[in-house]
Specification:
nine-stranded mixed sheet; single chain; 239 residues; archaeoglobus fulgidus dsm 4304 fold
Length: 239
């Protein structure tokens, strides 16, 4: 059952994540990047609730889903999904301005405060070191982690085949993330710091919240919910 509430502000997109042009988006991204914290601010033992955020598309509509789970039990506490019209074009490196407003609107309907958020996308492993996971984390001021299935920038060696194996993602001499084998024998995911976590903690939390699927359980649940919301929308209302 989808619950609604007022814990998070109702979509602060007009200031933090809405841009009128690509140039405006780059300006906002650069401004907010300096507010991003890439150090640990909460211990894993203090984390009680984790959330996953993902979205599905149909034409120019985006369905953003948030699922909050207990930690470490990973039982669903709350879930919500919002439908928004896309107002920003798809531009690599500026993805948060396309999907972020809908995700923030979904967070605005939650009654539960997560201690940490997983975002399907990159954080520090981004050409501007400020991907959607960093952007959402800074705007909400909540620790966040980026988990992606493909690299946007940088390169990494293939980790060993066992679960938990990892290799750093390098961009030149800089380590910007980690390629992590969450399921033995499957393709790795690419983990990066979003906001208020460090890379070791990000990797640890990804492994602690991955059960069966390649992505973390919060993200898998959010992915499923976003698809369900999209698929149950009558097509004659989506045009």
């Amino acid at each position: 059952m989808i619950q609604t509430g007022k814990k998070f502000p109702t979509c602060p997109a007009s200031e933090g994540i809405h841009a009128d042009s690509p140039a405006d988006a780059v300006r906002i991204q650069e401004m907010l990047r300096h507010h991003c914290i890439v150090d640990r601010t909460i211990n894993i033992s203090e984390i009680r609730r984790v959330a996953g955020a993902d979205a599905a598309y149909h034409g120019e509509l985006v369905y953003a889903a948030i699922v909050v789970l207990t930690f470490p039990g990973l039982e669903v506490v709350e879930k919500t999904c919002t439908e928004c019209r896309v107002t920003f074009p798809y531009i690599p490196g500026l993805f948060s301005f396309r999907e972020g407003p809908a995700i923030l609107e979904a967070f605005g309907t939650l009654t539960t405060d997560p201690d940490l958020i997983f975002i399907h996308g990159h954080g520090f492993a981004h050409p501007g070191r400020f991907g959607i996971a960093s952007h959402i984390g800074v705007v909400l001021d909540v620790p966040s982690i980026g988990v992606a299935q493909h690299l946007l920038t940088g390169a990494a060696a293939s980790p060993a085949t066992g679960r938990g194996s990892s290799e750093p993602v390098h961009d030149g001499s800089e380590v910007i993330g980690m390629a992590v084998r969450t399921v033995g024998g499957s393709k790795p995911v690419f983990v990066s710091v979003g906001h208020k976590v460090d890379l070791d903690q990000a990797v640890a939390m990804v492994l602690k919240t991955t059960v069966t699927h390649r992505i973390t359980e919060p993200l898998w649940q959010a992915d499923q919910l976003s698809r369900q919301c999209r698929d149950r929308t009558p097509r004659n209302l989506s045009s």
